[in-house]
Amino acid sequence: MEDKRQPEDGALSFEERRREAEKRYYDTLAFELERTKRRWENGSSLALFEALLCCGKLQAPMPEWCVEALEHGVFELWDFKSKSLDDVFGSPFRKGMRLEAHRREAELSPIVYWFCGILIKGGESIGPGLFERVSCILKETGLGYIEKTTVEKYYYDRKKIVEIMQQSSHEDEAGRA
To answer: Is 8 left (phi over 0), alpha (psi -120 to 50) or beta?
Structure first.
């Protein structure tokens, strides 16, 4: 049912906002699928599965490159030319990658960011002293010892992620307004 109300001067109608949101949705989907395609072409086996997850979650059709990659892989397995998914698509992790270090970063970077945020709100300035203090807090709480330079890296990496999420959220809110 279409919204029959007239928008205020300068305001977008419901239908105009819906069309803009739909355009953002498809632009975002196209951007994400193009990004994963480039990563796939550069050798990231995980990129194919990220694209499939994106299509599945958003109930969007798979791009042709995904279909071709899956078709090739499945035929390799059906014809017994390959014995595993890693043989067909490649390992999701490069040889020699230290999974434990990446797992530790994934677990601790949100905690580091949280502790830094609390101290910053309390008046602490961002700098070596802050990172040293968070390093000590982590050690004292039993979360483990992390050097202040690693705390700094975790903080800024997580900060980038948070800023991207906030920007995306603000764009969504602006589209709804």
So the answer is: beta
78 is in which domain, residue-wise? 14-89
Where a domain ends, among 60, 89, 118?
89
The answer, yes or no, to whether residue 44 has pLDDT greater than 90, is no
2 in a structural domain? no
Predicted confidence band at 23 (pLDDT cuts at 50, 70, 90)? Answer: confident
The CA distance from 88 to 26, in Å, is 30
Q: For 91-106, write each residue's pLDDT tens digit.
A: 887 788 888 888 888 8
Percent of the chain with pLDDT over 70: 88
Which of residues 36, 68, 89 is at a domain's end? 89
Cα–Cα distance for residue pair 158/109, rounded to 1 Å: 6
Q: Are residues 106 and 165 in the same domain?
A: yes
List pLDDT tens digits, range 80-89.
998 888 888 8
Longest dimension (CA), the chain: 66
